[in-house]
């Protein structure tokens, strides 16, 4: 039961607020209508119909017990004081013998059945404004006309319409105010999403209720701290780059001036690997290049990236849907795809790139026919400086930062990246970028 309720409850805050307003309003209206009809209105209706039926019974029985020459006396009194329209037709006879039950007038007819012994017939006109009662006397026919409003209160429907209209008007006003209150929350969520994707949010300002303003101010403080931390990290690594590259260059020059030997060659290799590792670490930790995010055509970018491989581009096959556009830093996009292609070219003979699109995401799948990565070690492959030696030969080069850089950049723009088994037998890298 609990799961069924959760499944059918609105997921949006606006929908839940609307439900909080509608449910009590509907319950209050239902209870009011029930109390009005079942208690008050039924009681009033019973008294009205019983009273009018008693008046008719009084007139009929008085006329029946009067001498034939005085039969009109009770009729004249009834017309004067009881507001009944009564005609008496000498020697008249009824056309109908059996009355049909009129909807809503059961109490009225039941009371007549109990107290009138003469044959009678009850019907209403086509407009439903009047009720007619024909009573057959031994010496004639009595026609009695009763206004319908004396038997039922037509204002009951006005009462229901008034209640419904008032509730609807209050609901509309509540929805308008509720939308205004929710708008700052939606803007805050949108700003957080844009910041998560690396987009500019300089035009965002705290607004709305005090609680929403506090949440927006906390978000802006968090954004400022993150920006400051990234800036400090970039500045620190720029200094590290300057400090480390100078002694490494000096070491390379000294090694170049030494006599060639096996030890010198090994040392040159170690120095070169150290230089590549430092550069790869700087690329991994550098963060934004400072370029502005912009709409990029995925198809055009992929063609440009593949064209840059020249001799290797024959090993890369492209299958894509045209017109897929994402908002991203073009250099970041090239680094993500380039790192994955570089990894694939080290271990596979063929790479196939497939591009598709859903309602919210652009999906890029990169398959290769290499050795792949065991399922248990796929998450480990995203860690910095991790090289899975049993699956990937260390002699192939690299420092284990390709997938780490790719994940860092993809998640920065609100996307996802994960690994799977390729139908070609190797590794499949799936990248989902928000459109």
What would you call the structural class?
alpha+beta
Tell me, rounded to a whole number, the average pLDDT.
Answer: 80
Give the fraction of residues assigned to helices.
Answer: 40-55%
Number of strands: 11
SSE string, helix = H, strand = E? HHHEHEEEHHHEHEEHEEHEE
Please state how the strands of the largest beta sheet are arranged side by side.
Answer: 6-8-9-11-10
Number of alpha- plus pi-helical segments = 10
Strand count, sense and barrel status of the largest sheet are: 5 strands, mixed
Write down the overall geometry: rod-shaped
% residues in beta strands? 15-25%
What ranges have pLDDT less than 50 throughout 5 or more consecutive residues? 390-395
Q: What distance separates the N and C termini?
A: 37 Å
Spatial extent as radius of gyration: 45 Å
Oligomer: single chain
How would you sum up this structure in a few lines?
The protein is of the alpha+beta class and 435 residues long.
Structural overview:
This protein is of the alpha+beta class. Among the domains are: 2-156, no CATH class; 292-434, 2-Layer Sandwich (Heat Shock Protein 90). 54% of the residues lie in helices and 16% in strands. The protein has helices at residues 2-8, 13-65, 72-81, 106-115, 155-196, 210-257, 262-285, 298-307, 330-347, 402-412, and strands at residues 85-90, 120-124, 130-137, 140-147, 294-297, 316-320, 325-328, 351-357, 361-368, 416-421, 427-434.
